[in-house]
Amino acid sequence: MIKAHQQLIHDGLWNNNAALVQLLGLCPLLAVTGTLINGLGLGIATTFVLVGSNTTVSLIRHHIPKEIRIPVFVMLIASFVTNVQLIMNAFTYELYLILGIFIPLIVTNCAIIGRAEAFASKNPVVPSMIDGLAQGLGFTLVLMLLGGLREFVGQGTIFDGAHLLLGEWAKDLTLRFYLTDQKFLFAILPPGAFIGLAILVAIKNKIDDIKS
């Protein structure tokens, strides 16, 4: 049992990473990762929805008619996304405004509906919860890596805007590596996101080749 859970974690973080292997959820991944904190904020929201939807689908899987399972899954996911929106509105309103439409669009994230259909609807609660957590953390790590890379190249900082997620005390967490009069827009805008993601995928593939 422990080995099975470890395999789920390893798959979510590496072998079957939603962003680097399945290439799912790329729209928000490429759109909001202008900074590390933006990526972290979206990653936490996505992880919350993944864990909640996987757990709920597993709990009620025997009571959902197969003919309507997908609409039911979408409804459950939408309810968790609504909770995330309300929480972010209450506690991280400025970050919520920055992430904008990509918070409600979590409902359409193929990685979430995919895990509900492919795993949670066929497995018990604990493995489904672990699978959702692992997949969410794997997605979050890619969001953070890509956001950190683009932020560093684009404006010479890391953790800029940390106070938007963690509170006013986090303003001191910003690390500035170089000063620039203008941001390097190529890195911050979508073209930089595509190149950054390609670099991360290439690094992962190279590591896998070395291991094999």
Automatic annotation (TrEMBL):
Stated family: Belongs to the NqrDE/RnfAE family.
Protein name: Ion-translocating oxidoreductase complex subunit E
Membrane topology of this protein: Multi-pass membrane protein
Subunit (UniProt): The complex is composed of six subunits: RnfA, RnfB, RnfC, RnfD, RnfE and RnfG.
EC id: 7.-.-.-
InterPro entries xrefs: NqrDE/RnfAE, RnfE
NCBIfam families the record matches: PRK12405.1, rnfE
Transmembrane residue ranges: 20-51, 72-91, 97-116, 128-149, 184-203
